[in-house]
Here is the input.
Amino acid sequence: MMKKPLWEPSLERKLNANMTKFMALINERYGCSFAEYHELYD
Here is the structure.
């Protein structure tokens, strides 16, 4: 059973995260459509 996380970052913080910026760069440069970390990792 998944438990509720103790904390979740705000939308602003998610949008400004380095990982979000990195995924946008990869998507633009290579024509991908990664939306979440696990997609990028695979």
Q: What stands out?
A: The mean pLDDT is 92. The chain is about 55% helix and 0% strand.
